[in-house]
Amino acid sequence: MTPTACTINVTVNGHPHVAEVEPRRLLVDFLREDLGLAGTHIGCEHGVCGTCTVLLNGASIRSCITFAVQADGAEISTVEGLARGGEMHPLQDEFSEKQGLQCGYCTPGMLMRACEILAENPDPTPAEVRSAIASNLCRCTGYQFITEAVIGAAARMRATKEVAS
Amino acid sequence: MTTVDRADAAPPVRDQSAKRRWVGQSIRRVEDPKFLLGRGGYIADRITPGTLHAAVLRSPHAHARIVRIEASRAKAAPGVHAVITGPEAAELCNPMPDFGPDPARHTWRCLAADKVRYVGEGVAVVVADSRYLAEDALELIEVEYEPLPPVTDPVRALADDAPLVHEALESNCAYERTFDFGDVDRDFAEAEVIVRDRLRWHRSGGQPLETVGAIAEYDLGTGSFTIDTNTLSFTSYLFMAANTLKVAANKLDIRPVPAGGSFGSKLFANKPAVIAAMCARETGRKVAYLEDRVDNISNCDHHGSDRIYEVELAMMRDGTMRSIKIDVIDDYGAYIQFGVGHHGNALAQVVGPYTIGSVRYQVQAALTNKNQQGAYRGFGSEVNNWMLEQMVDKAARELGLDPVAVRRKNFIREFPHFIPTGNVYDSGDYDRVLDKALELADYSHWRTEQERLREEEGRYIGIGLISAQERSVFSATEFWFWFDEPGAPVTSTPESVSLKVDATGGITAILYSCAFWGNSPETMVAQFVAEEFDCSPYDVSIVYHGSRDGLPATGPGGSRTTVMLAGAVEGAAGKIKAKARRAAAHLLEIDPDDVEWSDGGFHVKGDPERKKSLAEIAIALHLFKHSFPADMESGLDESKVFDHPYTTMPSADRKDLGVFYPFMGHACHVPVVEVDIETGAVTFLHYAAVHDCGTLVNPRSLAGHIVGGTAQGIGTALYEEFVYDDDGQLLSSSFLDYLIPTATEVPELTIGHVETPSPYTPHGVKGGGEGGRMMAPAAINVAVNDALYPLGVRLTELPMTPERILSALRAAGPIGGRAG
User: Fold this and answer.
1) What are the tens digits of pLDDT across the range B522-562?
2) Nearest CB to B744: which of A42, A134, A144?
3) Do A79 and B38 lie within an 8 Å CB cutoff?
4) Top-tier CATH class for A6-81
5) Potential cystine with B206: which of B83, B136, B265, B815 (Cβ 3.0-4.6 Å)?
6) How buried is residue B153: exposed, middle or buried, by Cβ count under 10 Å (0-12/13-18/19+)?
7) How many A/B residue pairs have CB atoms within 8 Å?
């Protein structure tokens, strides 16, 4: 049976896309292969590890167990959308400063999850960060410097917001 | 005892007193920006349009003869370009590279040819336009199996009537030998107390979040392969992979790609590259084979040690250790790619930091119907650390001695120190590490708290103190000193670096193995280059070179990368500076002996103003050939093939294995745990870790390895296990069942560094990439036993799952064997 293609409209990092996809096409494959946004990685393929985390209408989802058709009409944010005008997002910069990454493979998913965490709670405690990032596996770092990086980024983002307001 | 001439064999002692500007600084890693931006360039990111995708059909049986494979329906399926079955692959490819004891009798292939030997072994591969279509077609392949009785228990596998994993071997014992180092019988006869135990370490694995993958292309015009892959960094031995593919080694170019985690497993994983290349040649197209998660868990190179120990430790009543007898059975699974090299790792540091006079080491390598053991951070030395520290801990209990005092009493304090196996410990200061750990752990406070919480609140707190070794920089000898007449007694394990200074003075460093898998080879090299040339590490460009026309290299493994790259950079930089010195002297019209290097250039001794910067020298050497003497060649680039700096040969009778792992790090871990005796759960109240890996290159990076390795060690100690049932089914075949610690299972570590420089390496650096995992399982086991000691309970099996802790508590009595 030839699967029938569906037309979807998605906005990814602010750019609108209209695409034909098979109903069974996974969102992560759509992002990586069809849109060329290879920053979102595939980890466990069972929705456990969080490596493939992207934001769908602001909420984190596992793109390895989400079909592209489920994203029809949605706004997707991926790691490629974090840096603006050649300047890293405070989370990216703090991950670098605190060495919150080693192999870097879980990092895009971790960064997107951290965005969501800080959107919900701009001033988390280290324990709250640990609890929140327990959604995502990292096999390299033992999470300590990731936690420090998220705390550091939160402080910088709060400071920027204060200046802006 | 036969000995090599030890004093003469040591390399010259270096002066490590130099002031350093870049080595020792916690600078940001130069690797990071591309990964943070989502532009890491991992293997899966490199698939170009038109590339075909391969998917592998895997055996549902642990042990079965392949009677028939019918692939015609799969071949006719939409988008399918080829189906290659195991028997066909055996025609297309030779067996895979194998350092095992008798490769012709435990033959290892990219796909099973005649029978399957574990659940997950590949039996056929489909190549299609997409992974989706390839997987669709897998379902159309019919395989008729004749099931055979499986054997999954290593002890049963060694029995005479066990089903044979490899009939040609006529036994499931791939290797067996007993080594005596020193006079074990005399030391045991003179001992006052013999402490005995049986210990069980179950199988866990590296489980990198990125699987293994390869993209291969075959050029019919030149008859050569190009393979991009995140593994096969064992560059000097890639002629073996060429042999598997039936091409000349100079027709195979393996191009390194960053790996999303490895922990040892991606050093020499051949299957994905061989499968991709085989399919590329058959289809005449570029083919990508990226393992999925089930591929990588059930059929991989990251399953670790799987050991049963019977140990006897000979002691004096005052706590003096005399001798140790170690009898170990290791379950290697169905193949034995690295031989018993894992036990070479154990023998490198078998007596730990202690003055133990003699060692008996009996090892049996059992073959079973499981995935083969590969390499996992520690490579078997971490298991030895755990075994030894359980014995020391038990001895302290039985002798009624303080666990800190027993360790301190036996510490080695003079260096270099040769242990009974013949390996050397180059340097160390174990008291200093211990003192610092006790301070950071707030040890006496927790001892008081432990008693108070037990008495006042009925809580069971345990303090786990261990002091153990972290060997670094392996020699090739540990893979063959097992045999009296080894088939390939190789001795080279080099690492190479080329440095090119361009016409503007910019420096590019070229590396010759896939050195990046989460460690920081680029940062290390950039810091070493910056140290040599007084430039910014961020201005150094780093390039990874393919294997075909590259220089010899061995890749990461055995915590060798930083030391070996340091040596290669030092050597290449020395050559560059020698040429630059001549050029500068010529330009300054002075004798080369009268200039010296400082702040990025050569100046006239005593006249710092008369100077030529590296950029000035470089542009002259690149563009003004005729300004120089006739023998000066244009350009400024040099290479160094840096070989292992300290290897000696084993004695013929193998009573002395020679020096094979000389740069000996050390650590002390002190976790404080609470064991919930109702649920069997273990939680951390505190965790201090102090490591000494010689001179620090980037303290923050090393701390990252300590925390990350400890997190893996926590997994090994408490959660992670590849569970095979009696039928050989792998029960933990996804991350749902195989539990990797999350941020809430890993505590915040209090980290301390001690620096005892190696006398024999550039800057005094020792390897430090594996330390966390080499210490944590031992320390956590001691901590849990310390908590449960009042209940008469002692865990001797890892991982200490809640189920195992509760069943030990139940076995000890209705409310435990509560002492007093």
Assistant:
1) 999 999 999 999 999 999 999 999 999 999 999 999 999 99
2) A134
3) yes
4) alpha beta
5) B265
6) middle
7) 174
